[in-house]
From TrEMBL:
Residues 23-244 form the KaiC-like domain. This is ATPase. Keywords: ATP-binding, Nucleotide-binding. InterPro entries: KaiC-like_dom, P-loop_NTPase. It holds the Pfam family ATPase.
Length: 250
């Protein structure tokens, strides 16, 4: 099927007949873009990224998913619990899942994960690359840490972004999940400044319920209107559910 002009510059998140996620995000992620998703631990960043990966693969896109938190069996178990059946995508190699242990518990005292990934050129040929959680690399990777000890956190981030730009120039979209807690301000500023898509997930517990919001700070290259604030929930056996879509005045 010939792609429409809109399809040529968007990676559809798919599953149009099952949920409203793709519609809520304007038809998909812009190709060759940098998306930064912020939120504290437990906000739902990983679940949202898992939904992105699943839907992208269902649309015949290819995804590399790098996690610093969940080994493969945990990832697969969570995806199954949400009815995101990624087994076929894994077997077809549309989805490549990698776990990077930055704690050194695997016997590696200097887990230079980012340097190793840069050298693994094949990993960067997929359509979308997801880092879950990118802030862990900024905190624990010794290559970054060495510059940070000299007070050059900003320089360390700029080096990484320069590498990312070369990858994005080929049409690859990079999604960074970030927990700002514990990161110096000078680390987040360059990420926020250059992000084409900037999302901030917040959680509000009130009236005995948990409310989750995706605050859309920036969405360059959107296909259709993307609202400023998107309410969603996470339901076992269902996955991400968009509760409503309402434009919030800035």
């Amino acid at each position: 099927m010939r792609a429409t002009p809109q399809q040529q510059y968007l990676y559809s998140l798919g599953l149009a007949g099952e949920d409203q996620v793709n519609r809520a995000f304007g038809g998909g992620l812009p190709t060759g873009s940098l998306a930064v998703v912020e939120g504290r631990h437990g906000a739902g960043k990983s679940t949202l990224a898992g939904r992105f990966a699943y839907g992208l693969c269902e649309q015949s896109q290819t995804v590399t998913y790098l996690s610093t938190e969940r080994e493969f069996t945990r990832f697969l178990g969570q995806m199954r619990s949400l009815s995101y059946n990624v087994q076929k995508s894994l077997l077809r190699r549309d989805l490549l899942y990698l776990f990077g242990d930055l704690t050194g518990s695997g016997g590696d005292d200097q887990p230079e994960l980012l340097s190793r990934l840069r050298a693994a050129q094949q990993l960067w040929t997929n359509d979308v690359i997801v880092f879950d959680t990118f802030s862990d690399i900024l905190l624990y990777d010794p290559t970054v840490e060495a510059l940070a000890e000299q007070g050059n956190y900003r320089r360390a981030v700029q080096r990484i972004l320069t590498f990312f730009r070369r990858i994005m120039a080929t049409g690859t979209t990079i999604v960074l999940l970030v927990s700002p807690s514990g990161l110096p301000r000078e680390t987040m500023e360059p990420l926020r400044a250059v992000a084409d898509v900037l999302l901030d997930i917040t959680v509000d517990n009130s009236d005995g319920r948990r409310y989750r919001w995706i605050n859309v700070r920036r969405f360059a290259g959107m296909g259709q209107q993307v609202d400023d604030r998107i309410s969603f929930s996470i339901r076992p056996g269902t996955g991400i559910v968009i509760e409503n879509r309402s434009v919030v005045q800035r």
